[in-house]
């Protein structure tokens, strides 16, 4: 090999060696970064986007009052149509039984404004209704639903002529019975025992009372309200012979005085009215109804108002069971302990016969 050949051989080797080193250098860089050139460009673009999203906000930080206002606005913002549809579709329909149970358990929320009538309205009542005193009674044959015909005919007449009268409770499926209790004089521990029994069975009742009872038994009245029972009015004075003896003007004042007392003392508006002594006139019914009350009677009862009269609980149960019918409104007095003792049995008997225990609307 001559000198020229050696020179070209050396030159070629150096070139090959440089080429090999360049290739290996590129492979090393690729291995260290783990990315191709395309991946590198993508990563750089993502990095730029992230930097833009995380750029600090230069707006002024809201005060606490502003945040509270924003939160309140967000909470009260009306849902969109889509959100409403989603809520409707995701909430199962309430069954009739569940609805009845909910209605029974919920405390009564009086929503009627009671008002005192003026002289012209009272004159109109006098001109259009009779002032003949009538007694409320349960008698006569019974219809296909086991309702006394005296109650059926009186219901048709009073609601046809005046309206806003309750003699039967509303129709329901399953059928319902309803409890009302007359409160005039407190004989402890009758009412306490009754409230305990009603609580055990999750039953809500209507308690009808006069102003003196409410004044002398504020703790009991407060408990009735707190436990979801309803309180109805019998007026302020409960005169002998009934409130009809006061005349229309006197009845107007008497009812409104008790209304104001309950509103001022308990924050409670009574929606129902009951005639003491079961004595009424069409004029008196019309006056109470126009004041805003539902005039409440009953369709099943027992002579239990005498505290000193001994009543056999079994006989009382048989009588109340016999009178039971769809929409039955029981009327009992708490002055006699037998009427308290019978409640668990009549509740159980009603449930055995397929009734639920309702709460008057």
Helix content: 40-55%
What integer is the average pLDDT?
A: 79
CATH overall fold name of the domain at 108-357: TIM Barrel
Describe the largest sheet. Answer: 6 strands, parallel
H/E order of the elements? HHHHHHEHEEHEHHEHEEHEEHEHHE
Spatial separation of the terminal alpha carbons: 123 Å
Oligomer: single chain
Shape field: globular
CATH architecture of the domain at 108-357: Alpha-Beta Barrel
- How many separate helices? 15
Which regions have little confidence, pLDDT < 50, spanning 5+ residues?
Answer: 19-111
Describe what this molecule looks like in 3D.
With 361 residues, this protein is α/β, with parallel strands linked by helices. The protein has a domain at 108-357: TIM Barrel (Alpha-Beta Barrel). It is built from 15 helices and 11 strands. Strands 3, 4, 5, 9, 10 and 11 form a 6-stranded parallel β-sheet that branches. It has a 3-stranded parallel β-sheet with strand order 2-8-6. The longest helix has 31 residues, at 3-33.
């Amino acid at each position: 090999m001559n000198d020229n050949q050696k020179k070209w051989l050396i030159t070629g080797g150096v070139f090959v060696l440089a080429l090999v080193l360049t290739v290996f250098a590129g492979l090393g860089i690729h291995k260290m970064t783990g990315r191709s050139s395309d991946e590198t460009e993508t990563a750089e673009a993502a990095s730029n986007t992230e930097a833009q999203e995380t750029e600090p906000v230069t707006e002024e930080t809201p005060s606490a009052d502003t945040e509270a206002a924003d939160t309140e606005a967000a909470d009260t913002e009306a849902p969109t149509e889509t959100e409403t549809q989603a809520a409707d579709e995701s909430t199962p329909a309430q069954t009739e039984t569940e609805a009845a149970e909910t209605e029974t358990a919920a405390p009564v929320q009086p929503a009627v404004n009671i008002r005192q009538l003026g002289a012209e309205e009272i004159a109109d009542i006098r001109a259009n209704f009779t002032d003949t005193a009538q007694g409320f009674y349960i008698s006569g044959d019974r219809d296909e639903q086991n309702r006394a015909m005296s109650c059926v005919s009186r219901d048709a007449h009073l609601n046809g002529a005046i309206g806003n009268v309750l003699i039967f409770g509303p129709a329901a499926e399953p059928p319902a019975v309803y409890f009302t209790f007359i409160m005039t004089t407190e004989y402890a521990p009758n009412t306490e025992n009754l409230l305990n029994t009603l609580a055990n069975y999750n039953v809500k009742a209507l308690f009808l009372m006069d102003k003196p009872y409410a004044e002398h038994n504020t703790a009991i009245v407060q408990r009735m309200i707190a436990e979801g029972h309803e309180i109805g009015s019998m007026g302020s004075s409960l005169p002998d012979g009934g409130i009809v003896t006061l005349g229309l003007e006197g009845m107007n004042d008497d009812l409104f005085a008790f209304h104001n007392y309950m509103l001022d003392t308990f924050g409670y508006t009574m929606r129902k009215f009951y005639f003491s002594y079961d004595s009424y006139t069409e004029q008196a019914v019309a006056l109470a109804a126009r004041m805003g009350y539902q005039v409440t009677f009953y369709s099943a009862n027992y002579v239990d108002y005498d505290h000193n009269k001994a009543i056999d609980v079994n006989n009382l149960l048989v009588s109340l069971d016999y009178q039971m019918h769809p929409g039955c409104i029981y009327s009992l007095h708490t002055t006699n302990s037998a009427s308290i003792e019978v409640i668990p049995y009549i509740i159980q008997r009603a449930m055995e016969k397929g009734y639920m225990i309702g709460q008057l609307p």
